[in-house]
Amino acid sequence: MNTRTELDSLGEIALIDRINRAFGQTSQPETVRGIGDDAAVIDTGGPDYLLLSTDMLLEGVHFDLAYTPLKHLGFKAVAVNVSDIAAMNGIPLQITVSVALSNRFSVEAVEELYEGIKAACEAYQVDLIGGDTTSSRSGLVISVTVTGRVERDKITYRNTAQPNDVICVTGDLGAAFCGLQLLEREKQVFLADPTMQPEISEDRSYVLERQLRPSARTDIVYELRDLGIVPTAMIDVSDGLASELIHICTQSKTGAVIFDENLPIDDVTYLAATELNISPITAALNGGEDYELLFTIRPQEFEKLKNHARITPIGYLTDKPESILLATKAGQYTQIKAQGWKHF
Amino acid sequence: MNTRTELDSLGEIALIDRINRAFGQTSQPETVRGIGDDAAVIDTGGPDYLLLSTDMLLEGVHFDLAYTPLKHLGFKAVAVNVSDIAAMNGIPLQITVSVALSNRFSVEAVEELYEGIKAACEAYQVDLIGGDTTSSRSGLVISVTVTGRVERDKITYRNTAQPNDVICVTGDLGAAFCGLQLLEREKQVFLADPTMQPEISEDRSYVLERQLRPSARTDIVYELRDLGIVPTAMIDVSDGLASELIHICTQSKTGAVIFDENLPIDDVTYLAATELNISPITAALNGGEDYELLFTIRPQEFEKLKNHARITPIGYLTDKPESILLATKAGQYTQIKAQGWKHF
């Protein structure tokens, strides 16, 4: 082969697009939906659809063991996968977990990791049904696959939203990003002078927990069921609200307007962002790793969850594709851009 | 935590046992079988059971890019997973593939890897339905999850064999191991003197192909169907015949006798083993990575495949658990031990 194209010059998103195009159409009648949503959808002939999603986490890329307790890491590896099932309006069933580790880990360390995995299995009521433990020449690698089920008439994709739908988000945003920035700051201080003790005040624990041990919003899936609401589209907030909203709009061929004053941001996130000299709005829009659910509902459904404590309406969809706008209180509109571009 | 137990002191098998015990019983009614067989078994309420298996391959542990073409590696990563579905007497349906790679890989190299993945998807008629491509700080990591289906009355576990069952194996054994030894030998020669050209004669290509681009025996699953045979137990030969036979015997609480003169060994494997100063019988028993199927059938079924070209009867099961014997032509019996112990 004569040409060599550097991965950096292409970028991760373009590479994935190129691979996906190469695989084209699926051929098995059981495959309802392949690549392109939070989880794949399989029709096994049973009453519900089966959902399948997978995520691989690598040391030094997705987590830093300098400040990540192994128990939290095990929990998080499961939770981020369960979150993909919730994003399809589904209930998780089972997971497989493959772990690669080097001999710098002790048996006790490995057991801590699995304790976290077990805690997540109990929290989300999923069975561990497979996977393996193998050696690694370098860092820790955790690969989790999750299954779930969803009634056929309740499945929620990314590409089925419609103009005028109300955009809602669960919980609050930007906390996980601020938590990460605090942890990174303390790590740099420690590296510069190992005699320094970490200095994160206790009242910042909320943002640290959001980063280190996020929750998947399966509770919302059950609540939407109780309220009789099937969202018109849904996605989980892993890369940041901006990036996820763009996914829904692009795939559904709609535009959007969201209001900055409506973005749910916790007080601790405000304080941490201010301390870090970050705009709380930027943290909420582009921070990522909150694992909240972003979804859209028909306007006539809005009454049902208008005063819901953990669901916030933040805007609405429009019939102007590519116009994805952030509106300020002062009446200014700016185009929202995704900051999720990753380099190799 | 005050104690530190080294992983080496415990070993991989003991660690996995310890983890599995910690997870204990499964709780979802959909989970028919969790950890402990080639694939997990899920009852989705459809006519068939759904099968799920996963495998993670790491550079420097499971493959060496010094002599592994990326296209073959992509194919192999899928084939070894499909093999786990075949071992349950199932038909593969879909795969997810997660790949982590560093920027020392070019876009062309990544495309080669995915070409091999695609070739395997076509060979085994499976859909690629998910996964992702992410960056790695060190080596290449490939994690594949495969789904499959099997009719409820045809599922084949490891723990359901009975005394007097005939032990059969597909294809031939030991080739993949001899291929690996040849490749390793040439690598050492090259490292010692980079001006030396590799010297593997062309008539050894069979054992190289068996190592670099193994096949999953889905063909046998279809043939057993046509013959009207449901094996009493089945497992794929990934760690070596000895290790797999011990799994069937231990889990089914039987003993076994196999005959060394019956072990199917290809002529090229004999030649390569002789060249490498390895006993061909040892290669067949302990080599691993052949991805053939080892299965047992009721004695009365034996007539149906007595003269089958790609299935060889190698012995029978006994009612003496823990007595797993290799019989020589001279009438000597030796206890078979697994060599599959791996250190961290």
From TrEMBL, chains A, B:
Substrate binds at residues 62, 289, 341. GO terms for biological process: thiamine biosynthetic process; thiamine diphosphate biosynthetic process. Mg(2+) 1 binds at residues 54-55, 132. Mg(2+) 2 binds at residues 55, 84. Residues 36-150 form the PurM-like N-terminal domain. It holds the Pfam family AIRS. GO terms for molecular function: ATP binding; magnesium ion binding; thiamine-phosphate kinase activity. Pathway: Cofactor biosynthesis; thiamine diphosphate biosynthesis; thiamine diphosphate from thiamine phosphate: step 1/1. Mg(2+) 5 binds at residue 239. The keyword Magnesium applies. Its EC number is 2.7.4.16. InterPro entries: PurM-like_C_sf, PurM-like_N, PurM-like_N_sf, ThiL-like. Mg(2+) 4 binds at residues 38, 53, 84. Mg(2+) 3 binds at residues 38, 84, 236. Keywords: ATP-binding, Kinase, Magnesium, Metal-binding, Nucleotide-binding, Thiamine biosynthesis, Transferase. It catalyses: thiamine phosphate + ATP = thiamine diphosphate + ADP. Catalyzes the ATP-dependent phosphorylation of thiamine-monophosphate (TMP) to form thiamine-pyrophosphate (TPP), the active form of vitamin B1. Belongs to the thiamine-monophosphate kinase family. This is Thiamine-monophosphate kinase. It comes from Larkinella humicola.
